[in-house]
Design a protein that fits this description.
Length: 335
């Protein structure tokens, strides 16, 4: 069986990646409808040798669509409901529905069963959250997580194509001794780190930090899990990195954790410090897995581990996860 698929926001960084991943995974696409806002509607893109004209996203754009992949942004609040009413299942990459108790928030390696209770919309979690959840889940199953302290090192492409352009341009400007004019980020990003992603909210945490806390609890079904986060933008093009310090309910050795993670779905362990092997964002881009290394016991507490986790946030953190959700929907007969 084939499925008619719409991509909303088809010209953006996530939309383009959704197209690539659909093709790579041989997703059973019937009709493919590419949609975007007025700014991009009418453009022509080539996909698998065929030309597609980008259509305008509006209430009428979803007739006959089985799966609507929303890449993110305001289109979700405006049009996701219209897509559901037209009979599509929406897989939404925006933050609009993630914490809605009536909407499943799904990472296929972690909580695939949650697709079973969808009512038309399934939310794709925040990129940094997905990456962390894939690494936490097998360890939580094995030893019970008591508390997580996470610090992120997030690539500029998390802010879209404009983030990439800003880093490139500023790098050249700094090297030439010219002034820089930050637009996408609050401060210069070239040769800098910015401990500020998205807007500031309660307790002076950013929205990105709250997403990592609240969404992880929902995905793991652990409403009270103690999690604290600091999210930082770094001058890296692609792939988010995260330092995780995890305290457990029972002792887990580094060797045990390595064994568990090596067998975990969607995880690749790269951890051979003698040979200087650990995950790095330069080498994880365009990959679908979550890479884990520097696995070691936290010697300052009895039952703790430190991990270094890296993954392509446009792939596993967005497009790949969304398409995996669509695959789970099909496998579990929920579409
Ligand atoms: C970022 N997490 O990296 C965001 C993207 N959704 O900015």
């Amino acid at each position: 069986k084939k499925y008619n698929v719409a991509i909303v926001g088809a010209t953006g960084a996530v939309g383009q990646e959704l197209l690539k991943v659909l093709a790579e995974r041989n997703f059973p696409v019937g009709e493919l409808r590419l949609l975007a806002s007025a700014r991009s509607a009418g453009k022509v893109v080539t996909y698998q040798g065929q030309e597609y004209t980008i259509g305008l996203t509006d209430e009428k754009a979803f007739a006959g669509i089985d799966i609507a992949l929303f890449a993110g942004g305001s289109a979700s609040t405006e049009f996701a409901q219209a897509a559901v009413e037209a009979g599509a299942v929406v897989i939404d990459n925006s933050s609009a529905f993630r914490m809605d108790p009536a909407v499943p928030l799904v990472v296929p390696e972690v909580n695939p069963e949650d697709v079973d209770w969808h009512k038309g919309i399934i939310a794709n979690p925040n990129c940094s959250t997905i990456i962390m959840a894939v690494a936490l889940k097998p360890l939580h199953d094995a030893a019970g997580i008591e508390r997580v302290v996470v610090s992120t090192y997030q690539a500029v492409s998390g802010a879209g194509k404009e983030g990439i352009t800003e880093l490139s341009e500023q790098t050249g400007q700094v090297l030439r001794g010219e002034p820089v004019d930050p637009k996408v980020f609050a401060h210069p990003i070239a040769f800098n780190l910015i401990p500020h992603i998205d807007v500031f909210q309660d307790g002076d945490y950013t929205k990105e930090e709250w997403k990592m806390i609240k969404e992880t609890r929902k995905i793991l079904h652990e409403a009270d899990m103690r999690i604290t986060a600091t999210t930082v933008r770094v001058p890296v093009y692609r792939s988010h990195s995260e330092s995780l310090n995890i305290e457990f309910k029972r002792k887990i050795t580094a060797a045990e954790a390595k064994e568990i993670l090596a067998k975990a779905p969607g995880v690749i362990v790269i951890d051979d410090v003698q040979n200087k092997q650990y995950p790095m964002p330069l080498y994880t881009s365009d990959k679908d897995e979550v890479f884990v290394g520097r696995i070691r016991e936290d010697l300052s507490i009895d039952q703790g581990l430190n991990l270094w986790v890296v993954a392509d946030q446009i792939r596993k953190g967005a497009a790949t996860n969304a398409i995996q959700i669509a695959e789970v929907l099909i496998q579990r007969n929920r579409i």
